[in-house]
Amino acid sequence: xxxxxxxxxxxxxxxxxxxxxxxxxxxxxxxxxxxxxxxxxxxxxxxxxxxxxxxxxxxxxxxxxxxxxxxxxxxxxxxxxxxxxxxxxxxxxxxxxxxxxxxxxxxxxxxxxxxxxxxxxxxxxxxxxxxxxxxxxxxxxxxxxxxxxxxxxxxxxxxxxxxxxxxxxxxxxxxxxxxxxxxxxxxxxxxxxxxxxxxxxxxxxxxxxxxxxxxxxxxxxxxxxxxxxxxxxxxxxxxxxxxxxxxxxxxxxxxxxxxxxxxxxxxxxxxxxxxxxxxxxxxxxxxxxxxxxxxxxxxxxxxxxxxxxxxxxxxxxxxxxxxxxxxxxxxxxxxxxxxxxxxxxxxxxxxxxxxxxxxxxxxxxxxxxxxxxxxxxxxxxxxxxxxxxxxxxxxxxxxxxxxxxxxxxxxxxxxxxxxxxxxxxxxxxxxxxxxxxxxxxxxxxxxxxxx
Length: 451
Ligand code: SF4
Description:
This protein is about 30% helix and about 20% strand. By secondary structure, it is an alpha/beta fold. Among the domains are: about 15-140, Methylthiotransferase, N-terminal domain (Rossmann fold); about 390-450, CATH 2.40.50.140. Helix 8 (about 225-230) runs parallel beside helix 9 (about 250-260) and helix 12 runs parallel beside helix 13. Mean pLDDT is about 90; it is low at about 1-10.
C-alpha cells in the first residue's frame, strides 16, 4: 500500500523528483524507479525545484512525448549552472533509439546519466559513481536482464500494475517499440501469481496485467488464457484487468475465461487502428477488419455487459477517403465505449517513415470527423447507464468527491458519504451521463459489499 516516507538523513541521500512521459507502462516503470531510489536511501520530493536529482523517464512512442521531454531537459540548462550538485538522469526508451545517446551528450552536455529502459536497476550504481563533486557523464543503453526484481514504490492504491511481459515481436510498421524495447520476454507464472497474492494481502483491490501484447504471453507451458484463469481464481474479492491486447492474438479461449470468471472485468481494450484492410496490411497488423468485427461480436455475445475501447489512427501514409470511410464504418459497427484517437506522425527508424505522408489538412479534417462520430457513440452508451445501479471501486477522493469505475470501465463520480473510503466497493445509482463519464449517488445500505 502507498506509504509516504519521511525525509531521511542518510549521508549522500538525495531528494529526487521523477518526470514521467508516455503510457501506463511508463507510469509503472516510474514506480519501479522510485522503489529503486528509495531502497538506495533517497527520498521523493513534491516538486522538481526541491530536488537534487531529477529523473526523466522518457517515452519515444509518440513524437509529442519526446518533444516535451527534450523541452523540459533543455529548460534545466541554466539551473545546472547555478546548482552545481544537481544530477540530471535521462532514462527510458527514448534513450535506446539508435544514435540518440550520442546526440543527447552533444546537445545536452549537462545531462549526467543516460540509461536505457532495461537498465533501471543500475541507477544506484551510477549515482554512486557520480559523486556530485566529480560529475561523470554516464551512458548505458545496452540490454540487460530485465527480470531482475526491483522494489516498487506504488502510488496508485487501490490499483496495482503488474508486468507479465516485456518487449514486443510484432513490428507494426509505424511503431518504434520493438526496436527500443527488444523482443518479448514473459515473466514466470509463479513469480507473477506470487506478486499478485502479495499485493492482494497488502489490500490492493484491482490488478492490471501489463505488457505490449499480453495475449502473446508464453512461459513454462502457460499461455495468456491459462495465466488469466489461475490469477482470477485467487480467493479474494478483487478486479482483474489487462492491457494491451492485440486482435491477432486475442481469441475465444480468452473470452471464455473472462465469461466464466467473477474477478475479470468485462472491459476489453482492443486497439484496431484502422477499418481499412489495405491500411491494416501497410501497418503490418496481421488481421483484417472482418476478423476484428468477429472478435468484437464474440465479446458482446459472450461476456455480459462487456464494453470495448480501442485505439484509432488517422492519416496513415496513403490513406484515402475510402480507407477513412472504412474506419468510420467499423466504428459504427463495433460501438466502442471509448476510443483513443491519434493523428499519424512518422517515427524515424520505423518502416512507415519511408512511406509517403499525406497532407496535414486532410489529417485534421479526418480526426475531427472521427472524434465527432465516436463522441456520439460514447454518449449513447453512457446514457444506457442512467437510472441503473453499478458496483464502483472507489479509486480517488478529492474535495469530498469520489471517483471510480464500473467493471466495464466507465468513469463515475459521486459525493462521499457514510464511512466509505478509497479502496471500498460501493453500489451507486447513476443519475447523470456525460459523454465520457457518469455521475451518481452511493446507496448507503449497500455497504455490505465491503464486509
Ligand atoms: S503491437 Fe505493434 S503497436 Fe503495439 S508495441 Fe508492438 S509493434 Fe508497437
